[in-house]
Amino acid sequence: MASHGTPDPHSAPGPPGAADSHGVADPSEQGLWRPLRLLQTAMEADIGRIYAEAGIEGLRPSFVLELLRLHARGPMTITELAASVQRTHSAISQKVAAMREAGLVTTIVGLDARSRTVVLTDRARAIAGQLAAEWQATEAASNELEAELPYPLSRVVTDMEQALARRSFRDRIAEKLAADPAWTAAREAAAPDPGHVPPARAAGRSGRAGHPDNVAGAPPRTREMGR
């Protein structure tokens, strides 16, 4: 249950669809699963306090999974590590960069000269025992907490997976949008002018020819569940 922000008290949300000072309705005031994200964020902050109290500086709770995996299985390329922890290559690349900055990993050129192999530093290996102990303690605390709930969160996840297997989240959202005239109107308004010719792409900017979403240096497109 615990993942490996707290709300701003000065920005309490208004009622659904409330307008801001400019008179524009703000749909982001609604967030059915936002409390779950905030709860997980608070729990992760508690894990961070455990490490801070133990004098381990620069370690984020979100690093622990990858560090433990590397300690147990040895050096891996970013692609291998991403597959092992079921994350995207882009997300792991960013995390590896942050862990390298914290002095927990180094990267070396892989066998094919294009890949990068991630290796734990001596500092990371020295604290691996504490990371493993914390992980096990967190799992035990999560099981204890779940036993106090009338409906286990793990059961909720299983039930949601089964419901989404019957009908995907994408299909559910698309159906709502198809029935919303505001979506159609906004889409038509945003459509490019058929007579408009887009400017030529600057040389050396595209990550791969013909793929505008793969611009070198562009941030990855991510979506946070429970927004």
What are the SSEs and their pairings?
Elements: H1 34-53, H2 64-73, E1 76-77, H3 78-85, H4 89-101, E2 105-109, E3 116-120, H5 122-147, H6 153-166, H7 169-178, H8 181-190
Antiparallel strand pairs: 1-3, 2-3
Helix pairs in contact: 2-5, 3-4
Question: How does the overall form come out from the CA principal axes?
Answer: extended
Number of strands: 3
Strand content: 5-15%
Q: Helix coverage percent of residues?
A: 40-55%
Q: SSE order in H/E notation? A: HHEHHEEHHHH
Summed over residues and divided by their number, the pLDDT gives a mean of 83
Instruction: Give the spatial strand order of the biggest sheet.
Output: 1-3-2
Total helical segments: 8
Class of secondary structure makeup: mainly alpha
Low-confidence segments, ≥5 residues, pLDDT <50?
Answer: 5-12, 202-225
Rg over C-alpha atoms, rounded to the nearest angstrom: 22 Å
Q: Give the N-to-C terminal Cα separation.
A: 17 Å
Explain how this protein is built.
By secondary structure, the protein is mainly alpha-helical. Helix content is 49%, strand content 5%. It has 8 helices and 3 strands. A 3-stranded antiparallel beta sheet has the order 1-3-2. α2 (64-73) crosses α5 (122-147) and α3 (78-85) packs across α4.
Question: What structural keywords apply?
Answer:
single chain, 227 residues, mainly alpha, 3-stranded antiparallel sheet, 8 helices, 3 strands, 5% strand, extended, disordered C terminus
Task: Provide a compact summary of the structure.
The protein is mainly α. It has helices spanning 34-53, 64-73, 78-85, 89-101, 122-147, 153-166, 169-178, 181-190, and strands at residues 76-77, 105-109, 116-120. A hairpin with a 6-residue loop joins strand 2 and strand 3 (116-120).
